[in-house]
From TrEMBL:
The keyword Transmembrane applies. It comes from the Bacteria. InterPro entries: Beta-lactam_resp_regulator, Peptidase_M56. It comes from Candidatus Buchananbacteria bacterium RIFCSPLOWO2_01_FULL_39_33. Pfam families: Peptidase_M56. The chain crosses the membrane at residues 12-33, 67-91, 281-301. This is Peptidase M56 domain-containing protein. Keywords: Membrane, Transmembrane, Transmembrane helix.
Length: 348
């Protein structure tokens, strides 16, 4: 599929979002790997058991290193909480999306209406369209791996043939672009990394250009806008109260960035704002860098402090370690003298 300028901008924004998300996840798992050894040490501290060699004992207590160990506990809890949040958010998003799809597909028609059959062949969408029995104006593209288009019987009845065709072409663009999968990633990232500056802005920019690219595809580069405008008008007027479903990984025909789409349909010269690198994205990158540097720096200081403490603790005893071990061995040998063993070391 030939990618238009709008589609390329949507792709670029998506990859920026994906880069921020993967960057954060890399930092998260990198820190988890780095702190794993300290977590084992922490477990040993709670049991008050560390290495002992020839009476050289090294006990690092919470009282001796309150700041370091408190930091380690905090980092462990934060990492565990973030991992749990990531898993929980992804599972919830998938469950809600599947629930909505399942509820609609339960009313699936056995066969497509004749007009849909004809349009499916005309738009090369055979076996990609599902019709459901519902009077509501339901039109969406779904499916993470093998996307399909769902239309309600009410939509088929209310829209003219030309309007239905432009609606199918709009959803075809989402289908070919694997929009449901991209939306799943965008929704998941915005839910998980809600605290990261710039992420919400990039997500909205992606939605704008994704929808405009689909409109462009459906209207032959906005040359034939009348039928798309008519379809949008009928669907929005029919619904009266627009139901927001921005929480799902589903591309709905008339539920998002409507202001931008209407502006483009009514004004050929309208150009939505697009920035490759802006202050929002810069804020997100700076935040990631600061988090990484700060936490990694504290981990390095913690490792150094604990290592130097352990070394100094043992070094104090290691000055007499050889003599202590010799005394221990001598006592053991001398105890054997009572059993008839004699050795010169006991006469020293």
């Amino acid at each position: 599929m030939l990618r238009s300028d709008l589609a390329k901008k949507a792709d670029l924004t998506f990859y920026q979002l994906l880069g921020l998300g993967l960057g954060f996840l890399f930092i998260l798992f990198f820190l988890a790997f780095k702190i794993s050894s300290l977590m084992l040490l922490l477990a040993g501290l709670f049991w008050q058991r560390l290495a002992a060699t020839c009476d050289c004992l090294n006990h690092l207590s919470l009282a001796n290193h309150p700041l370091i160990l408190t930091f380690l506990i905090f980092v462990v809890l934060v990492l565990a909480g973030l991992l749990f949040l990531i898993i929980a958010k992804i599972i919830k998003l998938k469950i809600l999306t599947n629930k909505f799809i399942g509820a609609n597909l339960a009313n699936k028609s056995r066969a497509l209406a004749p007009i849909l059959n004809s349009l499916a062949k005309e738009t090369s969408l055979e076996n990609k369209i599902i019709e459901i029995q519902d009077a509501q104006p339901i039109i969406f593209c779904f499916g993470l791996i093998k996307p399909k288009i769902c239309l309600s019987s009410g939509s088929v009845d209310k829209l003219s043939r030309s309007e239905l065709k432009v609606v199918l072409l709009h959803e075809q663009h989402h289908l070919l672009s694997h929009e449901p999968l991209k939306l799943f990633i965008v929704r998941a990232l915005t839910k998980i990394l809600f605290f990261l500056p710039g992420l919400k802005y990039l997500a909205n920019q992606y939605l704008v250009f994704s929808e405009l690219a689909a409109d462009e595809w459906a209207t032959d580069y906005f040359q034939n806008k009348a039928f798309l405008a008519g379809a949008l008008y009928k669907v929005l007027k029919w619904k009266k109260q627009l139901i927001k479903k921005n929480e799902l990984a589903i591309s709905f025909f008339a539920d998002q960035v409507m202001e931008e789409r209407v502006n483009k349909l009514t004004n050929n010269n309208y150009q939505p704002r697009f920035k490759i690198f802006n202050s929002h994205l810069a804020g997100g990158l700076v935040s990631l860098s600061l988090i990484f540097i700060f936490v990694l720096g504290l981990l390095v200081l913690s490792n150094s402090a604990l290592a130097s403490s352990a070394q100094s603790s043992c070094s104090l005893s290691s000055q007499n370690l050889t003599s202590q071990c010799q005394i221990s061995v001598k006592k053991t040998i001398c105890q054997l003298e009572s059993y008839g063993f004699h050795n010169s070391v006991c006469t020293d």
